[in-house]
């Protein structure tokens, strides 16, 4: 990214790049009128990491809008790896989210007390749909809506990957509206992000005003899921087996399942380590005059030793 361009300027050029002879264009189409009476309330639980949660929120907005339902602010799971107690309002600007969607999807931070009395004020008593992964929007229309009209409040947990990417334009527009318009990070996160970008701009002046931001994505759950082997020996193997069992309970120990770390690495499916990222970046992308700022190696991530190949 050019250091002399603001984030807003950079984002404004996204739609100018041609695609198959045409141009990209935003699919957001905000409504201006009011909404009909709601068919009921939908409560979803957001599991997974930040990216999964963001996709889940967009899908929840799309489902609620398509069913003319009211969406309760999604509840974030306490992640078994990150131990992060953050709520929706800690990550995103909740008031902005609600107001941006007000003409397209009703969003509230709590369900009316008179309805919760039916369930003894306990969300675990609310009927929970176990929706199959990648279900079509028509499943929600034909199956979920019927129960919503009966119960007035339903719960869908887990909700990650519970809506097919293949959906009608009206559903895609709601997804886009949530992702590109309604979801804005909370002020503390925005302030931190602006500080980081400002610092990168300052330190890239001597290199032609260019900088590259790299997200290492080298975390315990990802390394465990990849089934790759680093240099930690027997202790690392025990730790990764334990992490896989905590996160995916039996997925990797099913009868007949064989894990071949060597073959996984040869197929290029192992995550780059904090050591490999700057090597690869320097060799393939950057001139030698570029200075690489490498973060502290997460040598305590696995067992206290660096993960090398």
Quick structural overview:
The protein is α/β, with parallel strands linked by helices and 309 residues long. It is 40% helix and 8% strand.
- Give helix and strand order, one letter per element, not per position: HEEEHEEHHEHEHEHHHHHH
Structural class: alpha/beta
Helix content: 25-40%
- Backbone CA Rg: 23 Å
Average of per-residue pLDDT values: 83
Biggest β-sheet, characterized? 6 strands, parallel
Number of beta-strand segments:
8
For the termini, the CA-CA separation is 30 Å
**How large is the share of residues in beta strands?**
5-15%
In one word, what is the shape?
Answer: globular
**Low-pLDDT segments:** 1-5, 295-309
The number of distinct helices, counting runs of at least 4 residues, comes to: 12
Structure report:
The protein has 309 residues and is of the alpha/beta class. The protein is 40% helix and 8% strand. The protein has twelve helices and eight strands. Helix 6 links the parallel strand 7 and strand 8. Helix 2 crosses helix 7, helix 4 packs antiparallel against helix 7 and helix 9 crosses helix 10. It is globular and about 60 Å long. The N terminus and C terminus are likely disordered.
Defining traits:
309 residues; alpha/beta; two-stranded antiparallel sheet; globular; disordered N terminus; disordered C terminus
């Amino acid at each position: 990214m050019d250091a002399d361009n603001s984030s807003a300027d950079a984002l404004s050029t996204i739609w100018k790049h041609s695609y198959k002879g045409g141009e990209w264009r935003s699919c957001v189409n905000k409504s201006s009128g009011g909404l009909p009476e709601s068919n009921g309330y939908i409560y979803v639980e957001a599991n997974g990491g930040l990216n999964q949660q963001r996709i889940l929120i967009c899908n929840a907005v799309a489902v609620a809008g398509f069913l003319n339902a009211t969406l309760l602010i999604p509840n974030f799971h306490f992640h078994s790896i990150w131990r992060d107690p953050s709520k929706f309002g800690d990550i995103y600007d909740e008031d902005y989210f609600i107001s941006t969607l007000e003409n397209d999807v009703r969003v509230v931070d709590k369900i009316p007390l008179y309805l919760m009395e039916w369930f003894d004020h306990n969300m675990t008593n609310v009927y929970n749909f176990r929706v199959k992964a990648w279900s079509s929007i028509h499943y929600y229309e034909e199956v979920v809506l019927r129960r919503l009209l009966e119960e007035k409040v339903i719960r869908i947990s887990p909700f990650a990957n519970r809506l097919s990417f293949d959906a009608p334009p009206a559903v895609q527009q709601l997804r886009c509206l949530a992702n590109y318009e309604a979801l804005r990070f909370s002020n503390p996160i925005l302030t931190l992000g602006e500080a980081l970008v400002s610092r990168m701009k300052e330190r890239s002046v001597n290199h032609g005003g260019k900088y590259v931001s790299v997200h290492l994505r080298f975390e315990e759950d990802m390394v465990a899921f990849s089934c790759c082997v680093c240099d930690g020996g027997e202790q690392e193997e025990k730790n990764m087996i334990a992490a896989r069992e905590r996160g995916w309970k039996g997925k990797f120990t099913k009868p007949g399942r064989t894990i071949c770390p060597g073959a996984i690495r040869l197929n290029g499916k192992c995550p780059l380590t904090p050591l490999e990222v700057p090597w690869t970046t320097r060799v393939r992308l950057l001139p030698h005059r570029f200075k690489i700022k490498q973060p502290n190696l997460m040598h305590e991530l696995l067992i206290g030793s660096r993960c090398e190949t």
